[in-house]
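Notes continue from the previous slide.

Worked example: a multi-chain complex. Inputs as given:
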Amino acid sequence: MKEGDADEIIVEALDLKTHFSANSGLLQAIFSANKQAVRALDGVNISIRERSVTGLVGESGCGKSTFGMTLVRMHEPTSGEIKFAGKPVTHITGAELKNYRGRAQIIFQDPYSSLNPRLTVGQLVEEPLLIHKIGDDAERAEKIARALGHVRLPAQEYLHRYPSDLSGGQRQRVAIARALVMEPSFIVADEPVSMLDVSVQAGVLELLETLSRQLGLAVLYISHDIATVGYICDRVGVMYLGKVVEEGPTLSVLNEPLHPYSERLLAAIPKVDTNATRNRVEMSGEVPSPLNVPPGCRFSTRCPHATDLCRTKEPELVEVKPDHSVRCHLY
Amino acid sequence: MAITFEQLQAQLDEKPSVHLEVLDLAVTYKTVKGSFHAVDNISFEVAPGSNLGLVGESGCGKSTVVKALMRLTPEDAALSGRVLVNGADLIAMNAEQLQKVRWTQIALVTQSAMNSLDPVVRVGDQIVESIRAHVGTSYATAWKRAEALFAMVGLPAARLREYPHQFSGGMRQRTVIAMALSLNAGLLLADEPTTALDPIMQDQVLARIQALQKSLHRSMILVTHDIAVVAETCEMVAVMYAGRIVEYGPTATVLTKPLHPYTMGLENAFPRMPSGDGVRPPLISIRGGLPNLLSPPKGCRFAQRCPFATERCTTEDPIIDIKASSHVAACHYPSRAEEFRRKAAEAETWNAMEGIT
Amino acid sequence: MAKTPTLTNKAANVGLRHRMLNPVAMLWQDGSARIGMIVFFLFAVVAIFAPYLAPYPPFESSLSEAGRLRRLEPPSIDHWLGTTTFGHDVFSQLIMGFRLAFVVGVVAALAVGFVSTLIGIISGYFGGVIDDLLMRLTDVALSIPTLPFAIVAVGLLGPSIENIILVITVLFWRNGARIIRSTVLTEREKIYVKWARTAGASHFHIIINHILPNVFRIVFLWITMSVAFAILTEASLSFLGLGDPTAVSWGQMLNTAFVSGSLRTAWWWVAPPSIALVVLISSIYLIGRGYEELNNPRLRRR
């Protein structure tokens, strides 16, 4: 392992669960006897260290975005614990919560709707400082210039421009600057490049990685695109139906996946190299609904190796290789 | 006169696949600020029974090409050039003639399956409707055809009786493909058919499309931003940039020995898996942005972002002639391609350019 | 704006001014809206300078040289639009009527705009029980029949301009609240609103900085349309004899003409207020229509 080992854990999720009520509306809430729960996030353990980028991959609906939103306390966790710099922040409120919101920032997927079109770049980046009543005019101007410098947008040129004048990549840089201006120690990047053109994705990814190293940030990189994870992540977790099924160093997970689901996910990526023949793996069925999680292993309904044990007993996360764990009865 | 299922099948099986020739196709939008050249004199060809990949990033005009081929461009768009569908010029056709070509000869699969399906009509009835709109046949016969189509795309026939909202995204996309295949059109236009799907579902839908292409021998244009999808699906590829085709040729050659610096950049920027020995691939991005198509720059449209551009590139427009050779590019320096390819594989080459992605 | 970012204060002010002027500048491009705006502006000028433009006090009875009341005289040099059955100058009453129409129209519309925006934003932004309660209240309000309610309410409260404005406000906030709420519902889902929450912003901050500026267009449209509703309602009430007796209004002129039995004979007395009413209301509808067209591309002519 690299220098990352000595770095401290910034954010830690311990058996974190976020369930949503499936019954919406007043009438349903009153008359429906059995309350169904959408088990979006169903017991996740992840720790994110400073100066590192941790990846979280999975298909839509697997709970990866719910996890990100729960970590920044936008969803109320049903159970489990979130620790930030060693202290629990799971249920903090008021000033404490506001303080945490300043230190844990989030970058959203859609650079077109995450910036208010009526504000200039300067105003957008300044907003968090105003929300937290930080500094006077001059101090704020300096902080904004510094944040824009970090994302390599020259302040002189961009301060007074509106989002509509910017490309997708530039907008995403503004969103990153807006997160950095609070000098956070933790950033959740929820699919930050999936709406950008391929030719500009790398620029934003590289920026995230560099910033994490330079500023000592703990970054959680959430993506459905496993290939991009290989570029910037030190560690990666694979999620399926609300649980992490495999977790370990990026190269180990990407090159030698252990869980049958990870294998299939990796096998599904088309290859640019026309000579390489890819072993397509047919997979039966679809992802079950988080309203109706199958008993035993969550993947057992689609797994070609599933046994009776898989269908009855949920496997534990076990360390199979150094630092590389998997939740599967095969190991 | 209503025909039987066997007659319908035989009639559809007889249909030839389309030979499409596009010559100097241009789509120009009139705006208050002047003419916007969304597609600027492009030419390409799809041989009967072959697949062409149309690759490019947002704003390159690839979706406009699809609209133009279906003659679905808005009224304020001016079309010029020729689109020959088995020799008949689509651009010159009137509404009545178009009606005979659309869907029966050229069928469209779009990205958002949800928008192509009527939420209040059963899926089977929608397919039946699309068949009976073009062929005089009974409901029962058309339903039989719908069952055959569902089998082709790998969906159980029983689900024909369900509504679109009961389907998952992947199933909806397959339904739309089944609809496009309903009249065995000679040319299939697939506009980002798998972009909205999750990786595993995308893979399964692509596998389906590939298998169908093999068995049915239809011609297909696959429009996508994902060069890997094209690499696996299409024999020929056209790379578009800023309203033009910048490179055109057999997919394997274009991807292994690209001639145009944009193709090189695009390919190198494509996310790759780390190699077995644990080396991370370089992060390559193309600096700068698309030129303003309201007043396109002189010379090559990629010149401002091209690390190899010379003065000639900013003054003289490179010409691409698809008849000249099997693999062509709109670049002044095809002979230096070898050198460009070597340099384009390094991130520094691209990072030396000005501008922010 | 409590928390308008200060760094780029200049830009912010420009932005704000831009936001306020933008609708007007935009509307100017639309032919029919431009006509509406010109007419509306001319009417507004007349309303402002009404006391100086009216040749006689509106309720002054005009006497002939012989000392007789000049009742129901057709237009003449002395009385451009003739006189009423009480010998009042029709032209002066018409001019003063502009003023009342504008006071009622603008004040009531602003009040309606304020109440509907407040309820629409609170209901749409906070959702949940608050939304349920406010929307059920709106449903009740929507079931009130307009004119009967207005007649009874003004009858009970007494006929004064203030009471008429109050009744109009009570009657017309309901549709506005519904429309604004639905816009807020879409605005609330914007990612930048979600982001502001994650950044620790208060609801007040989000409403002022992100919601309000983006529903402003709808509020503006609703206020414009409310001017028309308010003027029409005031005219109806006055025509029914429930107008403020101390002020002149077009509806009241028509009422007096009707009550005195001159509706069919004294065209010079009946036509001017009717035409003025129709022209003013049409001009507002033209503005509203143009505004909608500009904001809804589907309506936009190619």
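Summary box: Chain A has a mean pLDDT of 89. The first strand of chain A starts at residue 9 and ends at 21.
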